[in-house]
Specification:
Number of strands: 9
Number of helices: 5
Distance between the termini: 43 Å
Radius of gyration: 17 Å
Number of domains: 1
Structural class: alpha+beta
Helix content: 25-40%
Largest sheet: 4 strands, antiparallel
Low-confidence stretches: 178-185
Mean pLDDT: 88
């Protein structure tokens, strides 16, 4: 069974600036990937990784290797929503042989983390940023931390809820439960942080 754990972050102005910078950089990596997806019609995570990882690391040296992997995941996940969801106006079956539209990630797009780039221990969060790890205390119930350590982490996403407010969302699966598909991908609605540019 999947469940969601939402944690608002109490960040200082300096921490907020660092997270905004990370969010903008993550969107730039995603936007570098999007034309490859459009042109190759490939959004298989493993195949796209093999096609693009080395070039992305060279193009974005400030972005950590695992965060590049997370950007590839984000683009593949978004591409499935835009190009494959039955309710999407850009579904492949509707487009036929026409060129795919280009997905654009706005600077407010969410940032995906994993256990390599974010950790929680004793109520303290450590997360990757462009200029080193950011650490701060979380208002986390002991049961929530136990869930984080005892469950399979499906996704962890950093979103900006206001100009300077951030929130982490953890989608978790019970360790002995079925993994299922990516959580939160059921809706066909195009998220507000995306622009889809149809081919002329």
């Amino acid at each position: 069974m999947n469940f969601l754990l939402q944690i608002p972050l109490n960040v200082s102005p300096e921490q907020s600036q660092r997270l905004v910078a990370l969010q903008q950089a993550f969107a730039r990596v995603c936007n570098a990937l999007a034309p490859v997806v459009r042109d190759t019609r490939c959004w298989n995570r493993v195949a796209l990784h093999h096609m693009t990882y080395k070039a992305l690391r060279e193009q974005f040296p400030a972005m950590g290797s695992q965060m590049v992997c997370n950007a590839i995941y984000s683009v593949c996940r978004t591409s499935r929503l835009v190009y494959q969801h039955p309710g999407s106006p850009f579904n492949l079956s509707r487009l036929g042989n026409r060129p795919l539209p280009l997905i654009r990630f706005l600077p407010t797009s969410p940032v995906y983390f994993d256990r390599h780039t974010l950790s929680i221990k004793d109520g303290r969060l450590s997360m990757y940023t462009l200029d080193g790890r950011m650490r701060f205390d979380l208002a986390l119930k002991s049961s929530d931390e136990a869930s984080f350590h005892g469950s399979k982490l499906r996704e962890v996403v950093l979103t900006r809820t206001a100009d300077t407010s951030f929130e982490l969302k953890f989608w978790l699966t019970q360790a002995d439960g079925p993994s299922g598909d990516e959580v939160g991908s059921e809706s066909s609605e195009i998220p507000e942080y995306l622009m889809v540019e149809e081919a002329v």
